[in-house]
């Protein structure tokens, strides 16, 4: 038996590409976006009472990773990308039905829009459902996950003076915490774990409408080189 589902809305996110998105929600509190609800959920009735909630669960589709043939094993980045484990033991994007879930902060409710932070969703992500986070039921004191027991180790983020000035100026223009967003995302080292680049190799990603460029001058350290509008 098969079932069909339809998005109830789409996320307008600071993340314009998959690279550098935090691998779990809440790791970058400065990562913000808006869930724009579709009819008939956009009139205000569907979100009535949600202003009493600080966090919500989002069920969504990994719309750029949908596959016809399900994978039974995946190679999660947390294990270095070179060790295969069962798909149900991970939160990998390659899932049998392409469904993801994230707990994110609900900053504001505005009729057909939910203003969110601490997100890990790509711009344009289709959302299937919104559920309130219930602390007494959703937080399990003695829970464990031996494969991912602790948050990722953060690496140092340094700035070229001109890049920091650029980031501050664009942050003011966007009215977004851009400096914090860049630092929180890059400190988690978005490279695949098996990559050991030469210091001169430059990396880049788009956040909001700016392009961020950086390199790794030495192990365990990132230097932001430029933050520009293309």
What does this structure look like?
It is a single chain. The chain is mostly beta strands and 230 residues long. The chain folds into two domains: 130 residues, YaeB-like (Elongation Factor Tu (Ef-tu), domain 3); 73 residues, YaeB-like fold (2-Layer Sandwich). Helix content is 12%, strand content 31%. It has a six-stranded antiparallel β-barrel with strand order 1-2-7-6-3-8. The chain has a four-stranded mixed sheet with strand order 9-12-11-10. The longest helix has 14 residues. Belongs to the tRNA methyltransferase O family. Pfam families: TrmO_C, TrmO_N.
Give a nutshell description of this structure.
The protein has helices at residues 135-138, 161-174, 178-186, and strands at residues 9-13, 32-37, 55-61, 73-74, 85-86, 99-110, 113-117, 126-132, 156-159, 203-207, 210-218, 221-228. With 230 residues, it is mainly β. The chain folds into two domains: 9-138, Beta Barrel (Elongation Factor Tu (Ef-tu), domain 3); 156-228, RelE-like (YaeB-like fold, 2-Layer Sandwich), CATH 3.30.2310.
């Amino acid at each position: 038996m098969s079932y069909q589902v339809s998005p109830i809305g789409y996320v307008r996110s600071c993340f314009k590409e998959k690279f550098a998105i935090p691998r779990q929600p809440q790791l970058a509190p400065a990562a913000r976006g808006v869930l724009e609800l579709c009819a008939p959920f956009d009139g205000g009735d569907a979100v009535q009472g949600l202003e009493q909630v600080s966090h919500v669960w989002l069920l969504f589709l990994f719309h750029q990773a949908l596959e016809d043939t399900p994978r039974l094993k995946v190679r999660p980045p947390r294990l270095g990308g070179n060790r295969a484990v069962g798909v149900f033991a991970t939160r990998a994007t390659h899932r049998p039905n392409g469904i993801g879930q994230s707990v994110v902060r609900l900053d504001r409710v505005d009729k057909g829009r939910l203003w969110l932070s601490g997100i890990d969703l790509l711009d344009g992500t289709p959302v299937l459902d919104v559920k309130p986070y219930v602390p007494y039921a959703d937080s399990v004191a003695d829970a464990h996950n031996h494969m991912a027991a602790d948050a990722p180790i953060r690496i140092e983020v340094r700035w070229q003076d001109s890049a920091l000035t650029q980031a501050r100026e664009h942050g003011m223009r966007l009215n977004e915490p851009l400096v914090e967003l860049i630092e929180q995302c890059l400190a988690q080292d978005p490279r695949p774990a098996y990559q050991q680049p030469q210091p001169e190799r430059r990396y880049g990603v788009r956040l909001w409408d700016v392009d961020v460029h950086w390199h790794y001058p030495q192990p365990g350290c990132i230097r932001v080189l430029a933050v520009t509008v293309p």
